[in-house]
């Protein structure tokens, strides 16, 4: 597939599989980048064409303005992802990425494209809300949050110059997700919610509330671990995702 219309800025294929019968589109967490999904791409390259989103303001896009509004991000991502729907597509989003995936799915559904499945990992349902203000903290406060969540490379946290470089994007992401919702909308694709049983950001009940956001099937899977349970439980998450990809192909 030829990437056009600036989508090369947004989409990363670490192991291109243009002839695969299904696509997996991965949405990173707040402060995250496409490279977070490199291991997923490596593990599933024989099953699907894996694409990860790269948001503005980080890595090779750090010179671009950050986007601190979920709706604006979804509006910009939807037309970039739309050409991928020449075959079944599965969305996987972790934390903030789960909400962005949901909002992109809503927009694409209006255009006649519905994902075969949406995995909502490590994030409360759109209709639930907590009062959070990480984006209003000083730099040290944001760094403390990042360390507590254990989702940022220790090398980054230990490199003062690099850390200061990425903090604007992280703050922007936190502002985007902390000012989002509540939203009561639904999508027509099945949703599977994934959550760690010790996640301080999402309780099992808050994850289960995703069932109200689909008109199709719903499932919830709980894993041992915290907010980034999916790193130590990677084999289990990969197996579950592979099953969904094969199911999407079978359905067509």
From TrEMBL:
Record keywords, A-Z: Hydrolase
Gene Ontology molecular function: hydrolase activity
Residue ranges annotated for the Thioesterase TesA-like domain, each copy included: 25-241
A Pfam family the protein falls into: Thioesterase
Gene3D superfamilies on file: alpha/beta hydrolase (3.40.50.1820)
Superkingdom: Bacteria
SUPFAM superfamilies: alpha/beta-Hydrolases
Family: Belongs to the thioesterase family.
Name of the protein in its database record: Oleoyl-ACP hydrolase
């Amino acid at each position: 597939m030829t990437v056009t219309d600036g989508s090369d800025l947004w989409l990363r294929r670490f192991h291109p599989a243009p002839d695969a019968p299904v696509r997996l589109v991965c949405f990173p967490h707040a402060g995250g980048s496409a490279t977070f999904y490199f291991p997923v791409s490596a593990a599933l390259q024989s099953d699907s064409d894996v694409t990860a989103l790269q948001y503005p303001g980080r890595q090779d896009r750090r010179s671009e303005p950050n986007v601190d509004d979920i709706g604006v991000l979804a509006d910009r991502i939807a037309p970039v992802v739309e050409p991928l729907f020449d075959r079944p597509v599965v969305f996987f989003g972790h934390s903030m990425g789960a909400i962005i995936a949901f909002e992109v799915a809503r927009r694409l559904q209006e255009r006649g494209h519905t994902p075969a499945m949406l995995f909502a990992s490590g994030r409360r349902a759109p209709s639930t809300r907590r009062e959070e203000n990480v984006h209003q903290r000083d730099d040290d406060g944001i760094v403390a949050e990042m360390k507590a969540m254990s989702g940022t490379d220790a090398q980054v946290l230990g490199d003062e110059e690099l850390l200061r470089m990425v903090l604007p994007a992280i703050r922007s992401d936190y502002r985007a997700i902390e000012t989002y919702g509540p939203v009561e909308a639904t999508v027509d694709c099945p949703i599977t919610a994934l959550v760690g049983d010790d996640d301080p950001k999402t309780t099992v009940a808050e994850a289960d509330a995703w069932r109200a956001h689909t008109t199709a099937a719903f499932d919830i899977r709980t894993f041992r671990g915290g907010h980034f349970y999916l790193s130590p439980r990677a084999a289990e998450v990969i197996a579950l995702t592979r099953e969904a990809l094969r199911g999407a192909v079978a359905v067509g």
